[in-house]
Write a structure and sequence with these properties.
By secondary structure, the protein is an alpha+beta fold. The chain is about 50% helix and about 15% strand. The chain has 5 helices and 7 strands; from the N terminus they run H-E-E-E-H-H-H-E-E-H-E-E. Helix 3 packs across helix 5. The radius of gyration is 17 Å and the shape is globular.
Length: about 180
């Protein structure tokens, strides 16, 4: 198979996956299978917005962004029981789930075994997503530190945490 055909097949498969997961609601919003609303941001626009927010707050907020992304991803994962795959080849199937999720949502690639991320997202954002994946695969809480090696490569350092994995809090409901 040529590279062009393989690329078209990959694009078609990704498009089919996105269509199965998301739909356009009558109010113009994007909804997932659970009817939760999603917002799509251009990476550079999000980074501009985030930098402006940090400037206005006059404090670095990277750890807050990481915690927020981890909380939201943890809520989504637990609500959809994404990692409940049974015992047979459990770790491999969970890694496959992580790979498919990261690809479908455009987050990049997360190598759980090497603790490395290749992504155009901001390091705190994708580090939060990676933390949730790692905790679910290992079935225990982890502490995380990240080091940004380049614009697109992040190295993660995980260490076990004595805290237990409790049910994530519900997502906030805003009046708007």
């Amino acid at each position: 198979m040529s590279v062009t055909n393989e690329s078209k097949n990959d694009s078609h498969e990704l498009y089919s996956t996105l269509r199965a997961e998301f739909c356009l609601a009558s109010d113009g919003s994007i909804r997932d299978r659970s009817r939760r609303g999603w917002m799509i941001w251009n990476i550079s626009h999000f980074q501009l917005w985030w930098n402006a927010l940090e400037t206005m707050a006059n404090v670095p907020l990277g750890r807050k962004l990481m915690n927020c992304s981890a909380d939201q991803e943890e809520h989504m994962v637990s609500e959809n029981s994404l990692f409940d795959v049974g015992w047979f080849m459990k770790k491999k199937r969970q890694r496959d789930i992580v790979d498919r999720r990261w690809e479908m949502l455009g987050w990049g690639k997360f190598d759980i075994t090497k603790s490395r991320i290749s992504s155009h997202l901001m390091a705190p954002l994708c580090s939060g997503f990676a933390l949730v994946a790692k905790e679910n695969v290992l079935s225990n809480r982890q502490r995380i530190q990240w080091q940004q090696l380049s614009n697109t490569h992040i190295e993660l350092d995980f260490e076990p945490s004595p805290n237990t994995i409790d049910k994530s809090p519900p997502e906030p409901s805003f009046f708007w």
